[in-house]
Write a structure and sequence with these properties.
The protein is of the alpha/beta class. The protein contains ten helices and 25 strands. Strands 5-2-1-9-20 form a five-stranded parallel β-sheet, covered by helices on one side. Strands 13-12-11-17 form a four-stranded parallel β-sheet, with helices on one face.
């Protein structure tokens, strides 16, 4: 990525962090319910509260464990406490935080599993993804206790880390990524890299096999360069054309079956296909694909007026499903909701996504894109993004790793105060 492109991207990122012209008056103040306390929901809740609206954030858990940087825990150079955040900061800024599960949406009201009802003028859903356990024969929630997905931060992350530390040297680690679309496209390959970082020091005779449902993956050339440099011979990637598509799994024998072979795994990280979380299905904002089509102008649902959807659950044109995307979408949606509650029109946004990946604690690289809106849809702005170069010197890879850590510190502070 050139310096000029970085300058453009920084400028667009700054415009995403819009401030509000004035706090909402009593006449303009609206009741906004936000469902989901991740990077999208928490950020939107904070911005809307700052704008003077009555904001209630509904989150099932008392704290949020991030998927971004969870691979550093698997790699052995971070702790679970490093990726766990609470909601006291949001409460201090005027957000009413309700720990509960949203189970229904009807007639301007969100219903919780407790039976409580939360009326709203505007609803913002940022519920994340639901794992489609039934999409892979042999896999289930019970199976995930032996073959963890670890695609939601928390106990599954701890389980996978425990399996890796308890595995004997010389064991085979199988990682099975799903077909697109899914949360964090480069995530499985960063995971392979950071697990390899741990194994190369602690269990150097072990191997990692990536059995993929895709013929290509995000930042592939950069990952493959890193594997050849850092972990020669330890990581093997097999696409569907080479027999990599997983057809079924057997947790009782720790067997992973593909179209052309069977693999006995010491540790199996099975990442199933995904769709928008169940509350999106219940609210009627998900279509037949399982995802939520939205306006690129306001992130309001194409299917149900008055409901906005951001983050991994939405289909936002060319934007990928990432924490950076969710954060950028949260700001745009918050500004749009504020304008709509004031009786004003939303302005056409520019959005940014930058995706950092670590292949080792001091080895990182990046892909970035900028997105504009036209006719209610988001498109990628040609020439405004870029990818880290191949064959970069060690100093550049080290700097990119530092950028990744700085980004994580910034985005978690912005979301969780």
């Amino acid at each position: 990525m050139t310096t000029d492109r970085r300058t453009v991207l920084r400028g667009i990122g700054a415009t995403a962090a819009l401030t509000f012209a004035r706090p909402a008056s009593a006449q303009d103040r609206g009741r906004v319910v936000v469902v989901g306390g991740g990077f999208g929901g928490a950020t939107a809740a904070r911005f809307l509260a700052r704008a003077g609206h009555d904001v209630t954030l509904v989150e099932r858990d008392a704290s949020y464990v991030t998927c971004p940087f969870s691979n550093t825990v698997l790699g052995g150079f971070a702790r679970m406490s490093d990726i766990t955040f609470g909601y006291d900061g949001l409460a201090a800024e005027g957000v009413q935080v309700v720990q509960g599960e949203a189970v229904g949406v009807a007639d301007g009201t969100v219903t919780l599993a407790s039976g409580d009802a939360l009326p709203f003028d505007r609803l913002l859903l940022s519920p994340g993804v639901e794992l489609r356990y039934d999409a892979l024969p042999g896999y289930s929630e019970d199976a995930a206790q032996k073959m963890p997905h670890a695609w939601k931060g928390g106990p599954q992350t701890e389980l996978l880390r425990s399996q890796l530390t308890n595995m004997e040297d010389g064991g085979l680690v199988v990682i099975a990524p799903p077909a697109n679309p899914y949360r964090c496209p480069p995530g499985p390959y960063e995971r392979a890299s950071l697990i390899a970082h741990y194994l190369s020091a602690a269990k150097p005779a072990s191997k990692i096999l990536i059995l993929d449902a895709k013929e290509a993956f995000s930042k592939q050339a950069l990952f493959e360069e890193a594997w050849a440099t850092l972990y020669p011979g330890m990581i093997e990637w097999i696409p569907p054309s080479g027999g990599g598509r997983v057809a079924e799994v057997d947790p009782s024998t720790m067997t992973v079956v593909t179209d052309f072979g069977r693999y006995d795994a010491a540790v199996a990280n099975i990442i199933p296909p995904q769709r928008a979380a169940s509350i999106a299905q219940v609210a009627g904002v998900a279509d037949q694909t399982g995802w939520c089509p939205v306006s690129g102008l306001t992130f309001e649902s194409d299917l149900v007026p008055g409901i906005h959807v951001i983050g991994d659950a939405c289909m936002a044109g060319a934007m990928p499903k990432s924490a950076f995307s969710a954060n950028a979408q949260a700001k745009v949606a918050a500004v749009a909701i504020d304008a709509l509650l004031r009786g004003e029109s939303a302005t056409s946004p520019k959005l940014l996504n930058t995706c950092y990946s670590l292949a080792a604690p001091g080895y990182g690289f990046t892909v970035a894109g900028a997105y504009g809106e036209a006719d209610g849809k988001l498109f990628e702005i040609e020439g405004a993004g870029g990818v880290s170069p191949l064959d970069a010197p060690e100093s550049v890879r080290s700097a990119e790793a530092d950028y990744a850590r700085s980004w994580y510190a910034t985005i978690t502070t912005e979301a969780f105060a």
